[in-house]
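WARN retry 2 of 3 for item q-0093 after timeout on previous attempt; input resubmitted unchanged.
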Amino acid sequence: MATSGATSFNLNIDEVIDEGFERCGGIRPSTGYDLKTARRSLNLLFSDWGNRGIHLWKVELNEQALTAGTATYSVAANVSDVLEAYISTTAASGDNANTQDVALTKIDRSAYSAKPNKLARGQPSQYYVDRQVTPKISLYVAPDASTYTTLKYYTINRIEDATAYNDQQADVVYRFLPCMCAGLAYYLAMKKAPERLEAMKLIYEDEMKRALEEDGQRTSLYISPQSYFPNVS
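OK item q-0093 returned
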């Protein structure tokens, strides 16, 4: 028997809303407000996902040209956090066999605030992320931009808002579609079917657990014991 050969299944926002309502006991959205409240719940669900760990499909490599003596740079407002950063001798478009990259160590606010001279110039070795509405990344020491001219950093970005219905799909990868529908059903049950709330929550958390476990990087982990010799001077 022949298969379809297609692997492009996805759902429009209105189909996600229909699925969410149907899971609440066969309810159908019958008014414009039903669609509006469901879309609002869906966006709140995406906001909650931002607290559920790193979603690989929202990780993006960015770059920033360094200016000598400038330690702090703004990043895009859709950025939730900076995961890793490194300085480079070339911009991404100019990467070649001679490109040199140096990884930076992430520090917290307390460690950065304790630095005595934040505008001292040299080769940066550390960075601090100020997670405001528009995040900022600060380097220590301030770059001299003589050899390493570009800051490259991986960000975890916000999931895009659901703003329309039948002509828009969610900014969600295939493996998270079941989790999204289950989550919306749970949020709608709070308002439309409270008697199903506990069941919807259990289904949603189960779907979320599987999705998060799948959304990882399959790499080897090596753990070595630390050697300690207290009597060696």
